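Propose amino acids for all 204 sites.
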């Protein structure tokens, strides 16, 4: 039985080496080639016919997002899996709308990475648990009202309800209502989580 052919692109040599070792520990997989940036990957693909591309997002030159966008007309049998160290809600939303078969974080454990590889090759779209949370929050962000976005921004700036009410020209009780609503929409439970969300979402 022929092995599943994989091409990897990541600009961190140590991570790339570890990923190759992980993939080749699975009997049915073999790594055909590796690249350290997006442009090199695109050049490699002109002479190769892999079953799976494993792409890092944050590479010099053409980013993972650029590469995926330029591969929208990829052969139907070729799968694309993104491995990223960037935990940004909007980034995940961008990728979830593109022709990507799987997304995992570099901080995910080895079992998750293995599960992702097997699932993607089997034709099942795979988002790791952490990625699903990020995508859900990105979707929820789109549902925030302009007032709720303002409140998120001001909370991230460390302002109290009273200070936010003065800044926005609304009653403190209204600020509290906005705060409650946005935290429910985003499934956030305290101020620290709101601040972390605002930073990752670019709402600061």
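Proposal:
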């Amino acid at each position: 039985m022929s092995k599943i052919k994989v091409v990897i692109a990541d600009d961190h040599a140590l991570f790339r080496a570890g990923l190759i070792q992980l993939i080749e520990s699975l009997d049915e997989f073999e790594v055909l080639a590796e690249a350290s940036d997006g442009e090199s990957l695109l050049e490699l693909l002109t002479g190769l016919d892999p079953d799976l591309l494993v792409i890092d997002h944050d590479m010099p030159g053409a980013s993972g997002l650029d590469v995926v966008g330029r591969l929208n007309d990829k052969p139907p049998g070729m799968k694309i899996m993104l491995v990223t160290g960037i935990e940004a809600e909007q980034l995940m939303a961008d990728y979830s709308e593109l022709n990507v078969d799987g997304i995992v974080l570099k901080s995910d454990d080895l079992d998750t990475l293995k599960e992702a590889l097997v699932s993607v090759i089997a034709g099942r779209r795979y988002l790791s648990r952490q990625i699903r949370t990020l995508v859900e929050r990105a979707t929820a962000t789109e549902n925030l009202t302009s007032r709720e976005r303002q409140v998120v921004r001001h909370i991230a700036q460390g302002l109290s309800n009273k200070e936010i009410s003065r800044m926005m020209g609304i009653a403190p009780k209204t600020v509290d209502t906005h705060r409650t609503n946005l935290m429910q929409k985003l499934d956030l439970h305290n101020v620290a989580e709101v601040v972390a969300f605002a930073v990752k979402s670019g709402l600061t």
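The first strand starts at residue 4 and ends at 9. The first helix runs from residue 13 to 24.
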